[in-house]
Specification:
With about 210 residues, the chain is an alpha/beta fold. It has a domain of about 140 residues: P-loop containing nucleotide triphosphate hydrolases (Rossmann fold). The protein has 6 helices and 10 strands, in the order E-E-E-H-E-E-H-E-H-H-H-E-H-E-E-E. It has a 6-stranded mixed beta sheet, sandwiched between helices. Strands 2-1-4-5 form a 4-stranded antiparallel beta sheet, covered by helices on one side. A hairpin with a 2-residue loop joins strand 4 and strand 5. The mean pLDDT is about 90.
């Protein structure tokens, strides 16, 4: 179980705390969906949880053991809101093989197929892909990496409805093996995933779920 207790975060140039005492428990089989208006700090929360930004106060623990940001970078994988800022490989194939040097072409093609990218050229530069394709490539990379905690920042943004449904289907399948934390402008798309929260004025509030719809 991943737990946040009284996490406070203020970016360097920010006059006040962006995250102001965040409490959250995330468990296997119980994906978390966090909604919030633009600028409320959703991406910042993802960065803090995954150890990319350092909270000024509070504890983030895994199975009741507090973890440093460095330990959380190992524990967590992130599908970023703007994945193009984070690609390192010169080609799609290189990107998929980071950390999996011997990954066969068949396995690369298979994981790309899972995210609906069967038609792309493995030799293409990741930055040349469309925004939606880049997001799916970022998801494919995390499907290979299989982090215990998978954070997804606006995973459905810029996807057309058929691809969006594919991505939602993939996420539904992951929920028992990975702890999923999804931040989104479109919480209604995740109606069959369980716990929903709203990030507002630095705090997280649970919102009622409508599982039937
Ligand atoms: N490193 C930083 N330094 C200064 N201000 C920052 C920093 N990071 C984020 N902010 C500010 O914090 C606020 C929240 O940013 P964040 O990107 O976390 O919001 P968000 O909820 O993800 O927004 P969106 O829905 O548009 O993606 C913004 O006003 C942003 O300008
Ligand atoms: Mg954001």
């Amino acid at each position: 179980m991943l737990q946040l207790s009284q996490v406070h975060y203020r970016p360097a140039a920010c006059p006040k705390d962006l995250l102001n005492g965040i409490n959250l428990k995330a468990e296997f089989g119980n994906p978390i969906v966090i909604a919030g208006a633009s600028g409320e700090g959703k991406t910042s929360l993802v960065e803090v949880i995954s150890g990319l930004s350092k909270a000024q106060k509070g504890i983030i623990s895994w199975n009741n053991k507090a973890l440093s940001p460095r330990q959380r970078r190992w524990l967590c994988g992130v599908v970023f809101q703007f994945p193009e800022r984070h690609f390192l490989g010169l080609t799609v194939s290189q990107e998929l093989r980071l950390g999996h040097r011997r990954l066969s072409t068949e396995k690369q093609t298979l994981v790309l197929k899972k995210v609906g990218l069967s038609d792309i050229d493995l030799r293409q530069a990741p930055e040349k892909l469309s925004g939606g394709q880049q997001r799916r490539l970022a998801l494919a990379i995390q499907l290979l990496r299989k982090p215990k905690v998978l954070l997804l920042d606006e995973p459905t943004a810029g996807l057309d409805w058929s691809v969006r449904n594919e991505v939602l289907g993939i996420l539904n399948k992951l929920t028992n093996d990975q702890i999923l934390i999804i931040v989104t402008h479109e919480p209604e798309l995740f109606h069959n995933l369980s716990s929903k929260y709203l990030l507002k004025e630095g705090s997280l509030k649970a919102t009622p779920t409508s599982k039937k719809s």
